[in-house]
Amino acid sequence: MVVGAGIVGVAAAYYLARAGKRVVVVDRAGIAGEASGRNGGHLSPTIDGAWAPLGQLALDIWPRLIPDIDGPTEYRRGGGLYVVVDHDPMEPADILAYRHARGFVAELLSPEECRRRLPPLRSEIKGGVLSPRHGQVNPILTTKSLAQTAERHFGVKFLLYSPVTSVSVENDAVHGVRVGSGAIGAPTVVLAAGAWTGQLAATAGVACPIGPRRIQILLSEAMPPWTDVVWAGNGVYARQSLSGHLHFGSGGPAWERTLAEVSYTVAPGGMQRTARRMCDFMPGLRDVAILRSWAGVIGPSADGVPVLEACAEPRGLIIASGFGGNGFVTGPAVGQVVAELATAGRASVDLSGLSLARFTASPSGVGA
Ligand SMILES: Cc1cc2nc3c(=O)[nH]c(=O)nc-3n(C[C@H](O)[C@H](O)[C@H](O)COP(=O)(O)OP(=O)(O)OC[C@H]3O[C@@H](n4cnc5c(N)ncnc54)[C@H](O)[C@@H]3O)c2cc1C
Question: How far is 91 from 107, CA to CA, in rounded Å?
């Protein structure tokens, strides 16, 4: 049983079913109703610390997965360009060295090469770093098409508009979940409920520090297509979809909220800040109109690193969550790892930095 029909839950179901498991996905709403349907669609993984093995696997998996998906995705692998503006404290060569040291493919671009790829760019830049394996998708279409593939070709069942209220545990082992006033039995439960995962894990007696955070995206009017690179710099990130619309957002200050206070209202201040940063970064886009914007809720963990583990107690509980603002790209990699944990009991990538033990371990490394 997989709780959550975002990219992580859908990908987990797909790989579990491909491995021969009978899988049911339960969601309180529809497919891709939360962050997986509201994000920027960048396939540019975080490569810091314990994220790196998942980032590598993600970049390997997308080109293999896309041909197997029965339905539209709008996938393109046009590369990802980080542009270093003149007042950025980082140097392009240092960013390149960092990426190479972590085993990622990247190359330096001169300021002229950056402007050739992105003509609206400002002229005051130091250069850029191109990651040719990065890309983009339409995240809603991709999640729905993957779900359709899992259902049609591998027999995954979807139980939608059915909120899970708790995980059932007996004798230190998972027994299934409670959905409304009923119960569904399952020997393995995967919690892929995004920002709501901590709440559900608590019902199984597992402390999982994951909380909600609201971030937002702006959508421009359609322009004639001029790039298939996804790019970032000056505190903004952007891509141009196949329809010609620019999708862009910025890091900006986060809104900390409790689950009870989760809001999807777009904050005008954040929207103005993103638009100003974009105009400063790409003066050639100043006259492009913004059509609309929307907000979504991500679920980062307390230290910003994902939680991906098969719990020792209760047995049968797998947690796959805490992905924050860059978790769409790693979704299929996480799905594959979940299937490995459920079928073989171990993963093909290093998960040592992703377990819940890090939140309780003392600085000496001895469990508190
Ligand atoms: C504005 C924005 C821009 C972003 N840009 C990018 C980007 O460009 N690239 C990138 O890689 N990532 C990006 N992200 C992050 C990315 O969207 C998320 O990390 C990723 O989608 C998380 O997927 P998920 O499956 O873990 O969670 P979600 O997509 O949030 O899915 C969780 C699911 O669990 C369900 N659920 C919750 N509680 C229950 C319950 N009690 N019972 C049943 N079901 C339940 C929800 O209904 C939901 O469908 C962005 C996010 C936002 C909001």
Answer: 13
